[in-house]
Amino acid sequence: MSVDQATVRRIAHLARIAVTEEEVPHLQGELNAILDFVEQLNEVDVSGVEPMTSVTPMVMKKRQDEVTDGGIADVIVGNAPMTEDHYFMVPKVVE
Amino acid sequence: MNAIVDSRTMDPKKLIKGATGDWEVIIGMEIHAQVTSKSKLFSGASTEFGGEPNDHVSLVDAAMPGMLPVINEECVRQAIRTGLGLKAQVNLRSTFDRKNYFYPDLPQGYQISQYKSPIVGEGEVVVDLPESGGQITVGIERLHLEQDAGKSLHDQHPTMSFVDLNRSGVALMEIVSKPDMRSSEEARAYVTKLRTILRYLGTCDGDMEKGNLRADVNVSVRRPGEPFGTRCEIKNVNSIRFIGQAIEVEARRQIGILEDGGVIDQETRLFDPGRGETRSMRSKEEAHDYRYFPDPDLLPLEFDQGYVDDLAQHLPELPDAKKARFIADYGLTPYDAGVLVAEQDQAAYYEAVAKGRDGKAAANWVINELFGRLNKEGKDVTTSPVSPEQLGAIVDLIGENVISGKIAKDLFEIVWTEGGDPRQIVESRGMKQVTDTGAIEAAVDAVIAANPDKVEQAKAKPTMIGWFVGQVMKQSGGKANPQAVNEILKAKLGI
């Protein structure tokens, strides 16, 4: 598997990372090197082996249904560049 | 994912007429139902509706760096119970994935959802069709748990949008149906039934006005017998009426394009109820690449069969079972039973009235008199001024022939406005039915004597007897037993 330059631009856009035209060939090379490296895994026969979603053999911890958090609107919007009445303000997005 | 199967036989009555022939509309739905829980799916912040902006938000919901999600066991329980209520397969092991997209009300940059392994698999919902009659079975493809997003307000400022994350992280169940519906009526009936089941289970309050139940509706059309056409998805329709309207206009739009020789683009659309049209959400076209991958912050969700069995044992009686029981135990028609079980409170009220009484008479009074009156006043059974005990007493008084059906309506009116014990009211206001044949005979004689011409007519045309019954009833102030009046009249008139 390898990526072409159009794919590099598309991935960058989906991740909202600004990539200049000059950077594209370089990134394409880097991504393909990573993909080549991972490609080696295809040499292992994994038929009948269930995909591993976790490396820790433990049961997921669950919470009781209680309200234990919140009421900290000041803190939540504390780092926002713009706020009003505890709302975040962002450049207008309308469908 | 399972292959899409056409489970239905084409019904000519459900086809839509186009300019060049008939079309069949195919509908599938994704319902987002907010899980009833005190706190959020992965944080301890409150799920309460409303609240000051960003007040029900934890650092987890705001996606601050280093925060980790911890799952709410109640949400898991509710999802399993819902799966059981949908007669669906419950998966003892499921996993959480990240669905990646950018939007200001999604601070994580991804929604935690279940993509490959949902908590609940295939099930089914049996749906009654009140308008066209009959019953359909709608297949459930899956149910999975996921986070809700926050809310954006666009009308507060000329150039900025306001973001409130109170809803961010609240647990949703996405319930995906198979493409098993073939008309807007079927789609409305399906959502109505699903909502009833969720409310019985107490897993979602079904409040569509608050957005606690919303539907994405997939619509396509085809010529009867042909394979499925290209579908469009109408996002976030928030009332059952609008679901019906959106399907109608979207099917018409697609038929128009196809009949003009065009093709349908698979796309996401929005329904505008004001204009009665759907329109394309172009800005989201490119966003459909969600790059799902397993969420490394969460272990697989696992529980054993004993846990599921225990929940199954404690499920409440569900609408289908209750309806069957009402038909069997109280002799109700399927229609009446269906009306009564639509809401749990209604069914409970009815049972309180029907217990130890004639079930059909009780159903008539509850559905026709009580529901009719409640509707008119914008009330429901929980705020009814007439209690089941009072209504039961009215039904008893009719059954014991103490009052006539007509007087009973007056009595109902008095109990509704003034309250009180129906038996005492009948006693103190002299509303008892006259069963004394002597008194009735006297009234009949008087009417006959006053109307010799009508007597002649009645002999030629026996249906005239109705007029006489009316006159006698009027004389008695509605208190004469109509059956006795009828019999005495027949004898006296010789018909």
From TrEMBL, chain A:
GO terms for molecular function: asparaginyl-tRNA synthase (glutamine-hydrolyzing) activity; ATP binding; glutaminyl-tRNA synthase (glutamine-hydrolyzing) activity; transferase activity. The keyword Glycoprotein does not apply. Its EC number is 6.3.5.-. Keywords: ATP-binding, Ligase, Nucleotide-binding, Protein biosynthesis, Transferase. It catalyses: L-aspartyl-tRNA(Asn) + L-glutamine + ATP + H2O = L-asparaginyl-tRNA(Asn) + L-glutamate + ADP + phosphate + 2 H(+); L-glutamyl-tRNA(Gln) + L-glutamine + ATP + H2O = L-glutaminyl-tRNA(Gln) + L-glutamate + ADP + phosphate + H(+). GO terms for biological process: glutaminyl-tRNAGln biosynthesis via transamidation; regulation of translational fidelity; translation. It is an enzyme of class 6 (ligase). InterPro entries: Asp/Glu-ADT_sf_sub_c, GatC. The keyword DNA damage does not apply. It comes from the Bacteria. SUPFAM superfamilies: Glu-tRNAGln amidotransferase C subunit. NCBIfam families: gatC. Allows the formation of correctly charged Asn-tRNA(Asn) or Gln-tRNA(Gln) through the transamidation of misacylated Asp-tRNA(Asn) or Glu-tRNA(Gln) in organisms which lack either or both of asparaginyl-tRNA or glutaminyl-tRNA synthetases. The reaction takes place in the presence of glutamine and ATP through an activated phospho-Asp-tRNA(Asn) or phospho-Glu-tRNA(Gln). Belongs to the GatC family. Heterotrimer of A, B and C subunits. This is Aspartyl/glutamyl-tRNA(Asn/Gln) amidotransferase subunit C. The lineage of its organism: Bacteria, Pseudomonadati, Pseudomonadota, Alphaproteobacteria, Hyphomicrobiales.
From TrEMBL, chain B:
The keyword Transferase applies. Its EC number is 6.3.5.-. Keywords: ATP-binding, Ligase, Nucleotide-binding, Protein biosynthesis, Transferase. Allows the formation of correctly charged Asn-tRNA(Asn) or Gln-tRNA(Gln) through the transamidation of misacylated Asp-tRNA(Asn) or Glu-tRNA(Gln) in organisms which lack either or both of asparaginyl-tRNA or glutaminyl-tRNA synthetases. The reaction takes place in the presence of glutamine and ATP through an activated phospho-Asp-tRNA(Asn) or phospho-Glu-tRNA(Gln). HAMAP family: GatB. Belongs to the GatB/GatE family. GatB subfamily. This is Aspartyl/glutamyl-tRNA(Asn/Gln) amidotransferase subunit B. It comes from Alsobacter soli. The lineage of its organism: Bacteria, Pseudomonadati, Pseudomonadota, Alphaproteobacteria, Hyphomicrobiales. The gene is gatB.
